Amino acid sequence: MALYFGSAILDLLAVLTTLLAAVYAYMIWTFQYWKRRNVPHFDPVIPWGNMENPMNRTLSISEYITLLCKKAKAKGWKYFGTYSIMQVNLVVLDLDLVKHIMTKDFQNFVDRGFYTNEKDDPLSAHLFAIGGNKWRRLRTKLSPTFTSGKMKSMFSTLADCGAVLETYIQKSVDNINGNDIKEIVSKFSTDVIGSCAFGLQFNSFTDLNSPFRMHGRKIFDRSSFQDFKFVVATVFPKIARALHIMATPNDTSDFFRKVVEDTITYRWKNNVTRNDFLQLLLELMDKNATTKNGIKGSDSQNLTMDEAAAQCFVFFIAGFETSSTTMTFALFHLALHQDIQDKVRNEIKTVLANHNNQITYDSLNELKYMKQVIDETLRFYVPLPFVTRMAAEDYKLPGEDVVIEKGTRVMIPIQAIHMDEDIYPEPNKFDPERFNDKNKAGRHPYAHIPFGEGPRICIGERFGIMQTKVGLTTILRNFRVTLNKKMKLPLKLSTKGFFPSAEGGVWLNLEKP
Ligand code: HEM
């Protein structure tokens, strides 16, 4: 039925044109936000703002932000405004200001401003994503899970996974050569998280169709469209929730929720206790938490089944990709720099000789040079290129004439800080000596923050380093790592996904030294 132009189609066109014009005008107005506030910024482009078109990137996210920050630094900016689509962000470069946001004034920057949709997607409500009091409550509860005492008691479970990796590479070294090393270390870290977070044997090396490995791949090998959907959901969370947009793929969510529920039910039913994260979560569960089978939780604390599943899930996603990325890039650099590799291997041999040639919790703590190699790897290719914090109230940047408005996201560009040549001369040179005690002491404490900083620092830092050390020690004490002829140099980062990964893979050989 035509109302205005005598034709329903013309009416519809008129409505659509008006809507588009309104959105366009709103974008123009939004894209002047930083100009109106007199904050330094680069000119945005409609509709992506200062982002690259997520469907057609030429650089990885990490490289793109680092480039933007380099340009900003060259102009003498300590911070600058950006737009990701219509979301305004303040990128902070000055390390003293970074310290204020992450630590000193943390009470105003508790939230990350991450998209969650607890109703449709219970797994999205995990420790990394949630904010406010809910985060405080959960973080307080989960922190004891990651103390050095707990890490020590969990070490034997981790060492068992190291032994599986060792047997695998010893047996199949001929087949491994000329393979993407990321696939091998990912199987190891999937097994580690399986044992330590879920209390299950994932058997990633023997079960080629392991559903855990399959879901792990699926979460991180996201298409550009999925990335785009997530960015839009972060910018317009209310609309995204109304449209039931999930952060976790549907089948992955069903799979993990069922695994956790079945495992918890089994443990309650059979009074099983184990030295793992799940046991600690179990002890925090609501006495009224009921599984589908009608089994009730046994104590009076208040984590629900879905909350417990969400935490297992975040340990899985945060634990396996970060550590396997770190191991992959460490091995790549060691293959490029045989002298550094020799030094690491000699250290491993000397230290393990004092521990019956066993990889133990204490022996790993003595691997000081390997820790320098890991620190330098995490400087060079940090798994999370940036983190965000959202202002809970208006906040005046200390010493500056700028107020960060309530609800604005502040971005801490970790990778760009790590590549700042004023902090790290020749940033593209791999040099573990940057992290000897003397050189470390001469730098700002916020110059190296691969695990973030302040009260929201990575809860799994100790575990991530321990896991990385077990993987590297297992490989390097048995093999010399060299570049395979299929490895394309210089390494180019993939333009897909959020975590840095090598385009075409990291092709290495393992040779008997
Ligand atoms: C090399 C390994 C790892 C790296 C580089 C890494 C890095 C990070 C970073 C940068 C953050 C954000 C911190 C911030 O905003 O200040 C984070 C948070 C987090 N990480 Fe890790 N991580 C690693 C391993 C792990 C492991 C093994 C686990 C669990 C088993 C884990 C669980 C988490 C969780 C749950 C959070 C959210 C903490 C919160 O918001 O309270 N991470 N990680």
From TrEMBL:
Superkingdom, taxonomy of origin: Eukaryota
Positions annotated to bind heme: C458
Keyword flag Transmembrane helix: yes
Transmembrane segments: 12-31
GO cellular component: endoplasmic reticulum membrane
Predominant subcellular localization, coarse grouping: endoplasmic reticulum
Any one GO molecular-function label of the UniProt entry: heme binding
Pfam family, one: p450
Protein location: Endoplasmic reticulum membrane; Microsome membrane
Cofactor: heme
PROSITE patterns per record: CYTOCHROME_P450
Key word Nuclease present: no
InterPro entries per UniProt: Cyt_P450, Cyt_P450_CS, Cyt_P450_E_grp-I, Cyt_P450_sf, Insect_CytP450_Detox
Membrane topology: Peripheral membrane protein
Keywords: Endoplasmic reticulum, Heme, Iron, Membrane, Metal-binding, Microsome, Monooxygenase, Oxidoreductase, Transmembrane, Transmembrane helix
Entry-linked PANTHER family: CYTOCHROME P450, CYTOCHROME P450 6A16, ISOFORM B-RELATED
Family note: Belongs to the cytochrome P450 family.
Protein name as it appears in the record: Cytochrome P450
